[in-house]
Amino acid sequence: MQPCGSWASPSRCGRDARAPAESVGPLHQTTLHFRALVTRSSLLIPLLAALLLAGCNPPESPKGGKKDGKAAAALPSRAVQAAPAESRPMERAVSVIGALAAIDQATLSVKVTGRLQSLSVDLGTRVRKGELVAQIESVDYELKLRSAEALLAQARARLGLPLVGSDDTVKAEETSTVRQARASLLESQKQRDRIKALAQRGISPQSELEVAEANYEIAFNRHLEALEDIRQRQGVLQQRRVDVEIARQQLADTKIIAPFDGIVQERRASPGEFLNTAAPIVTLVKVDPLRLRVEVPERNATGVRPGLKVRLTVEGDTNHYTGTIARLSPAITELNRMLIVEADIANQAGALRPGTFARADIVLAAAEPATAVPKAALVTFAGMEKIFLVKDGNAAEKNIAVGRRADGFIEVLGGVKPGDLVVLNPGALQNGQPVTVNTSRPPPAKKAPVPAAPKAGKKTS
Questions:
Q1: Which of 105, 155, 223, 280 fits 181 for a cystine, CB–CB 3.0-4.6 Å?
Q2: Do 247 and 144 form a contact (C-beta atoms < 8 A)?
Q3: How many angstroms separate the CA atoms of 395 and 428, rounded?
Q4: How far from chain centre, in Å, is Cα 25?
Q5: Per-residue DSSP letters for 25-45?
């Protein structure tokens, strides 16, 4: 192919120049476009990098020039009130959660079968110890008692005792049966002795002596039998006495009595029902005192002991209640590493109820030294607690963990020493902001002004 020059014809030059483009396929055209884009990008990347470096490192302003914008503006100094952190005696307590329970709870049931004649209590009824709660029909048990008493009187009569009485002492030798048998025995003995003497003299035959000996043996055995019969009657008398006591107890059991002072929690029967033995009637709970049952973590269990004071609050009640630890578990629970503790809480007014969820503080020490700051120094934001310390004339923000609170002071659990100045009511104070300290405490609440005494030489109108 000849080069396209001025001497060549235009038609030929145009045709020859267009020939390669017309002969190139679509895939080759795409490759050419991609190479063009890569070439342009390689030229733009160094230019963008140079612009970014220029923006990050602006040229320094000449000395004595003004700094630009708010970023370089100095924070204004602020006058603040400050107070030193103190070492104060504070109460040490363990906060726990638990539930209140009745000190005693019993389901009153019947001991004898029968129809419920009356029920004198209902839900919420207060009862006293020994008060009648319910009554079972007692006619059948009254008849049983009368029958047992009649049999007892019969047994006493067989022993020669009065029909009614509480003394069942009997001397067997003094009963009529034994006296009669003894008399027969003595007569037989005398008869035997006489015949024996006559037989020795040859007057009485031997046969009569043998008969006398036999009669004596019979009388002797009858005497023993009489003594055994009296002992048997004494045993029957004791049995009749026990039967009377059983019948009397069954009659008494027809009355269901409150075993302690309490309140009816549940009524489980109605008058007219026939109740079998052990059928429940009411559930009774004792609410004064109440039993507070809590779990103390193992790390705090060392100082817990009976007799410590307990303070508690319940949901929906602003009052604070107090009690005393009465019982401790002898071992730590293996599953949750907790010590089970029970305290008795006085509830004379009845404001607390069994089953109520409670939050309690077990007071381990009434006064223990602690580093504390005034309550006004604490700032809480987004769940974080912090204070501002005064260091080298500037405010230094300090995140802290707080502990006990008492008398307007809050315990700081580290990072602050007694004597460190803390800013009171910091408000919008910023970290590093210069401060002018006024160590005086906040002024107390204003009271009504008291008229000043008149100066000497002046009169008040």
A1: 223
A2: yes
A3: 11
A4: 88
A5: -HHHHHHHHHHHHHHHHHHHH
The pLDDT assigned to 146 comes to 96
> Average pLDDT by consecutive 10-residue portion of the chain (461 residues)?
42 43 49 54 55 46 41 73 89 91 95 96 95 96 96 93 90 88 92 89 86 92 92 94 96 96 95 95 95 94 93 92 95 94 93 94 88 91 89 90 86 89 89 81 45 42 36
SS (H, E, C) 347-363: CCCCCCCCCCEEEEEEE
Strand ranges inside 70-157, DSSP E: 78-84, 86-109, 114-119, 126-127, 132-136
> Cα separation of 294 and 340, whole Å?
6
Q: Which two tokens stand for residue 3?
A: 């080069």
For residue 171, give the nearest of 221, 219, 227, 225 by alpha carbon: 227
**What are 249's two structure tokens?**
């107890």
Contact 279, 259 (CB under 8 A): no
SS3 233: helix
SS3 374: strand
Cα angle, residue 243 at apex, residues 241 and 244 outer, rounded to 5°? 65
